[in-house]
Amino acid sequence: MLHPQIIIKRGLKTTILLFLLLGFTLPLAACGSQTAWLAFDDESSLRQISIQGKTLAEILNNAGYALGEGDRVMVNGVKTDAGSEIILEAGDTIQVRRVYPITVHDDGVNRTILTSARTVGQALWENQIMVSASDFISLPLETVIDRALEIEIQRSNLITIQVDGKQITSSASAQTVGDALAQAGISLQNLDYSIPAEKETLPTDGIIQVVRVSEEIQIIEEIIPYGTEYVADAEMDLDQLKIIQAGQAGLSIARVRIRTENGEEIARETEESWIAQSPVSQQTAYGTKITIQTTSTADGTIEYWRAVTVTANSYHDTGYKTASGKWPVYGMVAVSSDWYSYMKGTSIYVPGYGVAVVEDKCGACAGNMLIDVFIPTDQYVGWHKTVTIYFLTPVPASIKYVLP
User: Fold this and answer.
1) Residue-range domain boundaries for the chain
2) Which of 26, 204, 228, 341 has an alpha carbon 20 to 30 Å from 221's alpha carbon atom?
3) Across all residues in the chain, what is the average pLDDT?
């Protein structure tokens, strides 16, 4: 086989023929034309083209790659005017960035731009579409433009978030409350909720309240008081009491679900309750044995069947009749409604007041050892004293054995 260097000396035609016979591909430059490399956008593959023409536009057009309006051309990485004359050297690299349409939806305003910029960020900047770090952009700014694109921009709004006892002011480019909270780094967990709700649009006043919710189960014990059962004892004197069986408190247990919002209890629900220990009633014996007695008073000797100590208060005309339907006069007393049902019309002796008859009811006397004595307004003297009153004979048919 002949050495290529020897064949080259024989002339260009002989060299080409020999290379073809040997199966070699001859570069275009060897045919009397210099070549350059051509790349489109960010394609990794290169095309080899002849350098034929005075301008880049002519060279590319002659190579079968006509430029479109707005296409950007760089030579060896330097932006170059495609219409100006240029001298290329063999092996130079021409990069063409085609023009692509980008539809921008900017907070409800739509526009389409034609750009040969390499990235989305560069295209927006070249078209005076400024964005801030808090604005939402549907594509990253570093996205390479190699096709027609649609970009959505949501401009940030100032919002105030009330959360965990604090007030946070930030910018959000979200359309919903949930997205705004996410952008602010605030998460709703478990039962937490927001006002307005997550799926609602941002409120016009920009205020979002986050409500932290927690629920816990508590076991609550409650003492059940015991009652008293009274047992009559004919051998015991009237108004004598004796405990014959001690009472015992019971215990109830409940499982309660307690809900708190922002640390404050707003609801509790009993899920289950049961009696762990039933109460045991106290049994008390009371005497029913009545003994008629006499005693000397400032008003003479009286005969009585019962004597009890009470607090006596005075009252005067009220403009109303008594419970018995009579107009009040000196010598009338008022007792609790419970006593009145047994003692209506009963005569009693009140030291310092005299003999009186139960004719009226006293609301404040309920459940207490109290009576009211009536004194007419023109004779009124304020009373509030502890006295022993005597129930005068005869003994009534109906007796309230246990007082008060």
Assistant:
1) 100-154, 157-211, 216-286, 291-392
2) 228
3) 89
